[in-house]
Amino acid sequence: MDLREIIMDAIKYPISDTRKFLIFCVLIILMSLSTIFPSYGVNDGTLAMISSLVTLIVSFIVLGYSVDVVKAGVENEDTLPDFDYVKQFIMGIKALVLEIIYFIIPAVLVIIVASASGLFSSFTKIVYASINATSSGASNLTMIMAAIPKSTMNTFTNALTVTLIVGIILFIIFSLMSFTGLVRFAKYGSGTEGLRFREILKDMSNVGFVKIIVTLIVIYIIALLLAIVIGLIGLIPYIGVFIGIFVGVPFILLFVYRAIGLLYADA
After folding, report:
1. Tens digit of pLDDT for each residue in 89-134?
2. CA dist list (Å): 193 to 21, 139, 178, 188
3. Phi/psi zone of residue 261: left (φ > 0), alpha (ψ -120 to 50 degrees), beta?
4. Average pLDDT, the chain
5. HSE-up of residue 23 (Cα within 13 Å, Cβ side)
6. What is the distance between the alpha carbons of residues 140 and 208, in angstroms, rounded to a whole number?
7. CB 72 within 8 A of CB 254
8. Does residue 181 surpass a pLDDT of 90?
9. Measured between alpha carbons, how far is 161 from 171 in angstroms, rounded to an integer?
10. E strand or H helix that includes residue 19
11. How distant is the alpha carbon of residue 118 from its chain centre?
């Protein structure tokens, strides 16, 4: 499918089954209870604990259902998936673990780069130099900066630059891989499949790296525009928050996950 077909299909998809869409909307409301109650001035402690627990449980169900939406997109199914709350709760937990793994790997690599480049050691020296300068009577930032050796500052600046560049590159790479990993997880129902890096790169190559990047950018631009509209609706007293959460948020989630599934349908 080309980009236009993906977007048009994803926009129509949330209302392909009104009953299931409304059920999903109710789940989003339940997931948002811990936010809704304070917005209406309800601050009861017991109610806050219960609503937080409900939010946590339903959040996993919503995430698991979103995984099924991705699967439906991959398999070109035209309607919303059926609800299986227990299964989708478990799938939601697995999906979260998968996303955490994709966050941890680049984070560890960035820490290694930062350590090897001297970022941590030079930062420590800057802190100690600043403390010594302050205790010696330095009363402003200029005096404190003058007390820091130029070699230390240069090492820190260079190391920070390298770490940021590497971090940004790794973030982009692993973000793209995490999307593909989520799709493989949705398709096969196995967390292991979501971590098969060689197969993930093969799927990305089959779809096309440029197509993936461009499509994801367009998807999130549209989602951002929809979120802005929801934010404006949320300004309406009393009912604005409810309307935005009940209709807007579910629509955006289904739109995004459907589009991601369709993107990888030819992988």
Report:
1. 999 999 999 999 999 999 999 999 999 999 999 999 888 888 888 8
2. 29, 58, 12, 7
3. alpha
4. 88
5. 13
6. 54
7. no
8. yes
9. 15
10. helix 18-31
11. 30
CB within 8 A of 78, min separation 6: which ones?
16
Residue from 258, 262, 261 nearest 14 by CA: 258
- Token digits of residue 19: 């009953």
**109: CB partners within 8 A, 6+ apart:** 166, 170
Cα dihedral 85, 175, 203, 64 in deg (nearest 10): 0
Q: Can you give the pTM of this predicted structure?
A: 0.82
Q: Which two tokens stand for residue 198?
A: 């060689």
Give the count of beta carbons closer than 10 Å to the beta carbon of residue 181. 25
Report the alpha-carbon distance of residue 193 to residue 186 in Å, rounded. Answer: 9
Length of the chain as a residue count: 267
Cα separation, 201 vs 176, in Å, equals 10
Cα–Cα–Cα angle for 211, 216, 217, rounded to 5 degrees: 100
The Cβ of residue 60 has, within 10 Å, a number of other Cβ atoms equal to 20
Residues with Cβ within 8 Å of 12's Cβ and at least 6 positions away in sequence, in order, are none
What Rg value do the Cα atoms of the chain yield, rounded?
Answer: 24
